[in-house]
Amino acid sequence: MQHDPALDRFILALPKAELHLHIEGSLEPELMMALARRNRVDLPFRTVEEVRAAYQFSRLQDFLDIYYQGAAVLRTAEDFRDLGRAYFDRAAADSVRHAEIFFDPQTHTARGIPIGIVMEGLLAAVEEARVRHGITGGLILCFLRHLDEEEAFATFRAAEPWLDRLLGVGLDSSELGHPPAKFARVFAAAGAAGLKRVAHAGEEGPPAYVTEALDLLQVDRLDHGNRALESPELVARLARDAMTLTVCPLSNLKLCVVDAMDAHPIDRMLALGLRATINSDDPAYFGGYVADNYRAAAAGRGLDRAALGQLARNSFLGAFLPEADLVQHLCALDAFLTAH
Ligand SMILES: Nc1ncnc2[nH]cnc12
Ligand SMILES: [Zn+2]
């Protein structure tokens, strides 16, 4: 496949929403080292190069081990704001107009950092992004699925003062052996509190986990969802319900969910009528932000402007945006696509 610089420019300028981004996964090695110094946290790495060299994964758990270790440098509200600011600055350069961001409070509360510190810093970053870049943003509180539901409930209760400033709840961390059913009650409580619900499912886990996320967690959106493709009935259901899938091509490659980018199913998902979107997941660990993910998928699968435009349209359709804002984003996207 010939490299096409004009397509790169199109992708970079394409207005888009990002719906699957773990803020802790946007911690670049440079900021990790700087925060380690600022907070006097010991890291098992001496240089940025050593950190990057450690990012070799053959499955999800390899990555999670190092990702939780890196998050230990985050200690103050200022740290979380700096982390959020760095992400939003980078996202603005990729023409992200709206971002719905995951955060993992249990990774921090387990180290004695109060959830209020995390909330204060991240909410400040969201507000700053609106002022500095005109990007709208929202936060999705994720429960760690390798922990038990009682701990998820404790986190949900601790987040009570901030519930009106959250978009929703999510479910992440080690998928295999931790089916969605384990969190049915806490997701029901979140739904009753008026929050949106999303869950990682079908990244490494089987199609049955996707079905559980739909039936037992009542998710409004599905994170990854790759392995749903193994079940034609499930694909038909997801297409019929216009369920958004937040797909992460470079993550899939790095975590060996796909063998190569030219084997990625993103175009097959679109052809099956699925509302697939492209996202970066943990960009500091997987080698690219959202535009890099669009570029990698486009190069790997020969996506044209129409397909890329559809993916961007899906990103707005799948966002938890008020109707009037959605219409504005879609009009701006149509104007862009007409002009390009
Ligand atoms: N891709 C991913 N899957 C599950 N948990 C995660 N936490 C951060 N990134 C994740
Ligand atoms: Zn993820």
TrEMBL record:
Gene3D superfamilies: Metal-dependent hydrolases. InterPro entries: A_deaminase_dom, ADE, Ado/ade_deaminase, Metal_Hydrolase. Substrate binds at residue 282. Zn(2+) binds at residues 20, 22, 200, 281. It comes from the Bacteria. The active site is at 203 (proton donor). Residues 15-324 form the Adenosine deaminase domain. It catalyses: adenine + H2O + H(+) = hypoxanthine + NH4(+). One of its GO terms (molecular function) is hydrolase activity. It holds the Pfam family A_deaminase. Its cofactor is Zn(2+). Binds 1 zinc ion per subunit. The record marks 224 as: Important for catalytic activity. Its EC number is 3.5.4.2. Keywords: Hydrolase, Metal-binding, Nucleotide metabolism, Zinc. Belongs to the metallo-dependent hydrolases superfamily. Adenosine and AMP deaminases family. Adenine deaminase type 2 subfamily. HAMAP family: Adenine_deaminase. Catalyzes the hydrolytic deamination of adenine to hypoxanthine. Plays an important role in the purine salvage pathway and in nitrogen catabolism. This is Adenine deaminase. It comes from Sphingomonas morindae.
